[in-house]
Amino acid sequence: MDQRIGVHGNGIHHVSVNGSLYPTKAKSRRQRWEVKPSEMANNTLNPIRAIVDGMKITPNPDKPMIALSIGDPTVFGNLPTDDAVLQAMKDAIDSQKYNGYAPSVGYLKSRQAVANFYSCPEAPLEAEDVILTSGCSQAIDLAISVLCNPGDNILVPCPGFSLYKTLAVSMGIKVKLYNLLPEKSWEIDLQHMESLIDERTSCLIITNPSNPCGSVFSKEHLQKILKVASRHCVPILADEIYTDMVSCSCPSMASLSSDVPILSCGGLAKRWLVPGWRLGWIQIHDRNDIFGSQIRQGLVKLTQRILGACTIVQGALEGILNNTSQSFYNNTISFLKSNSEICFNELSTIPGLNPVMPSGAMYLMVGIDMDHFPNFKNDVDFTERLVTEQSVFCLPASAFEYPNFFRIVVTVPGEMMVEACVRIREFCQCHYRPRSRDSNDLDQ
């Protein structure tokens, strides 16, 4: 066997065997195939999928299915986007300007369009303060990733959007849940929230308007939240994807903050009714330069892991923001408000149910007085049987770590919402049982 020893420029000795080079250091050889998923993959869990996939969903064959569970406003085809939005996309495609790679943070012109659209004297924005992302979900992912290290903790609303926990836990970040109060239209229990903050709290997540609650915080309540964050020097991740989908005033967190730095996450998905187009953004509000250049540079580096939002949608973004008619926004909000009122008014007269009237987003939460429904173990059992008997699918709030409630999506056609409420009433009348003391009161 022909062996020759040589030294390469990097100082590593290699042995040439029959003309091939390999390091002299002995290596152990694997004896069998053993390919395992990473810890990150194993630690990634979507609570909604975990619960829904475990449910026995078999609709009543005599009744057409009404799905009130899916947070996608396009499902039933009754809420198309505006013609100007479609035209902007067609123009972007026809221009042939957006077929290549964009900068990882997005086209400068598109970032400027977002800045111009949302900038206000209380919270001014420039293009450099905007990062375009693949939907609001990636915006949230980047915000958590840039602010938190493994072993840190973040504060998340309960009930709240399940993605926060899905992302954080996969990164080794602890999630602490602060309570929302249904009796106060889902305001934050500020005392509880503040009690959870410690030296490893790296981020406070505020969802306003709320998914799953449909609540909208008042200006006064937002100011109280900011005082807590300021007192403990904790930055805020503001999930404001539904901020323009409201029937009341909904100021942004940044417009009220004098010192707390805020990463505001939003996107096209809900206001413009195009969730599949995957165009989101982070607005960096850092008036006192607390984030400084490091957080900004960190976000830029993180965007380079994948090259962000679809370039064609980026090319259409200026036209979408500037040309969508106000009547389109008004009609969407009017429809959602009408459906919410129909649903709330109908369900609030059903014994055993306690709906909470929403003010924004696309959702309504309904409390179940389980003492009156002894046939069911919990909200999952209740909603599962509702599908089996009435072909109405509502999402059990256990998916949001808030048992004995269920969430209704109010984007379905109006007549379908009315029919769903009729079926829910029939279901509850069939299974409702008065408490024993209620029976005694009736006998007296």
Automatic annotation (TrEMBL):
GO molecular function, one term: pyridoxal phosphate binding
Alphabetically ordered keywords of this record: Aminotransferase, Phenylalanine catabolism, Pyridoxal phosphate, Transferase, Tyrosine catabolism
Residue positions, PTM N6-(pyridoxal phosphate)lysine: K270
The protein's annotated pathway: Amino-acid degradation; L-phenylalanine degradation; acetoacetate and fumarate from L-phenylalanine: step 2/6
Catalytically driven reaction(s): L-tyrosine + 2-oxoglutarate = 3-(4-hydroxyphenyl)pyruvate + L-glutamate
InterPro entries: Aminotransferase_I/II_large, NHTrfase_class1_PyrdxlP-BS, PyrdxlP-dep_Trfase, PyrdxlP-dep_Trfase_major, PyrdxlP-dep_Trfase_small, TyrNic_aminoTrfase, Tyrosine_aminoTrfase
Residue stretches spanning the membrane: none
CC cofactor: pyridoxal 5'-phosphate
Domain Aminotransferase class I/classII large, chain residue ranges per copy: 64-424
NCBIfam families: tyr_amTase_E, tyr_nico_aTase
The protein, known as: Tyrosine aminotransferase
Native source organism of the sequence: Seriola lalandi dorsalis
